[in-house]
Amino acid sequence: MVWIIRKHHMNCKGIRLNLLLMAGLLSSPVTAQLIRVQAALDSNTIDLGGQVHLTLTVEKPRGTVVEFPVFGDTLSGSVEILDKGEIDSSQNRKDDKVVLTQKLTITAFDTGLLYIDPVPFVYRSGSYADTILSAANYLEVLSFPIDTTNTIRDIKGLYKAPLTAREIFPWVLLAAALGLMVWFMVYYFKKKKRNEPVLARAIPVEAPDIIALRELEQLKAEKVWQQGRVKEYYSRLSDIVRTYLENRYNIMALEQTSYEILIAVQDYTGKDTNYGLLKTLLRLSDLVKFAKAEPEPEENMNQLENAILFVRDTRPQPVSETGETDPHGILKVPTLKTEV
Amino acid sequence: MGEIAFQIRELNEKIERESAFVDLITNEIRKVIVGQKHLIDSLLVALLSDGHVLLEGVPGLAKTLAIKTLADTIDAGFSRIQFTPDLLPADLIGTMIYSQKKEEFIVRKGPVFSNLILADEINRSPAKVQSALLEAMQEKQVTIGSHSFELPNPFMVLATQNPIEQEGTYPLPEAQVDRFMFKVVITYPSREEEKLIVRENLAMEFPKARTIVKPEDIQKARNLAKEVYMDEKIEQYILDIVFATRFPSQYKLPQFSSLISYGGSPRASINLARAAKTFAFIRRRGYVIPEDVRAVCHDVMRHRMGLTYEAEAENVTTEDIITEVLNNIEVP
């Protein structure tokens, strides 16, 4: 603990000046009050290169200005400053004083007893300035004991730095490229040996109407109802039409009831002739499938013809080169499937 | 083959003729109840299928009025029992009381001895009271002292549950919930319907439903509804739906495997088939079509499936699962 040392820089050139200065000091708000500064070490002894804290404390009345010194890298010659902490403030409400604290981390690489100069703090009040010094400190830096009995060893060799991802990545890339090349060569020779085309060939998927019309023709050719298998005939007939609707309009016709299908299709076809054909077909199919209805042979034929008519009328109309729809033209289907 | 087709045609005509009273009942109920078409259909299907209904909906949605009106149209007895935590089985089924005049114990029958029972807020009472009612529902008889008493025919229970207030309730165990043919979820009426309800109430004009049929006619209609033809394709469709809730992966629904803890029981298949037949009957048809199965599927299935914690965390409901199952199962 160090008590204040106040140095008044006064010029004593005359009694008049002295009196004036005295009057000035008396008018200063802090003259009657005590400012306390302190510079304290955590420990006065460290090993060579060891670290210790030097804590600077200023206790001052509220409203006064006390400036901390600005430090460089060293403190008193061979004592080095490693870290300068922020100035922290706290308030003592009892006697209305403010306590400012700064912590310095210091070290030294010279052995022996080192002297740390008093730390100067500047007190200012208007044009008046004063320097307040803390007490000096002593720091004893101890050397390491050297074992002279051991033999002298050689300098250690260099350590290898660990590999980084950036260094490895080009090699991984190269290995992958080589692997791909090997795989392609094996694949190429295998295909060549089997006399198969090496590259995939894209073939167009059949349009839904083409599939539906083919299956309807096949159903007709099989003469299913003529053999008494009416239920099977209507099941297949309605399935062909529902599959067509699913692929043509992208509605889940296979998972929907007849009523739901009709509502969904109505959005595309409206309530036109085709809608009527579909409604009759689905209703009659339901009757045959679920109520064992037995339509007249003529009705069986009509429904198949109606299904064909429905598919033909609702398929997408191909556009000719002149921009007009050509109902007899061949539709170019944009979707492709891959065949290897 | 031709013989069966002829029989079905005859049955269809007979049902079309004899189910005319259903439309009359519906019209009478609609005079009193504004909206709630689904509730009215479900009540009729349950009544004609000899089933019971679990109703879920917030208070004030005409649950009591609907079942009371139904009772009026079929000239049946009606009892409303408010389930409370202190209710005892004897309060429900009846008890033996000592008659000083006769100097013997006589039977005092409880409110369960009626045709249509409204068990209001069934989950407010402890398990022993719930069990007493559910036993009566299953056995159609109750035992008081050493005597067994048959319950009147038709006998239908409409139990309600409030989905909002769950504190201090005794949720029905899965095994007992399974005994209800339907779980119907009632929603709020539409804006237009509610306007009509407000007007009727302000005018204090409450139409009354006429009696259309007698309880004996209900039994006849039940017998007729049982005769509705169900093709094997429809049976397969019903089984596909129920099995998809048990083994979702086998029905291209692997995303539900981790969400469903248990699927529909065989009782689900039975009730789905029975309800589909009766639904066809109230639509005045002598055969079942897939529409009938889909129309009753949510009400039959929603309380027969268990969801995992994962489903609850992802806000997946049984409604979502049933809808997705129906959208993925191929219709015959």
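qc> The domain at 228-328 of chain B is CATH 1.10.8.80 (Helicase, Ruva Protein; domain 3).
qc> done
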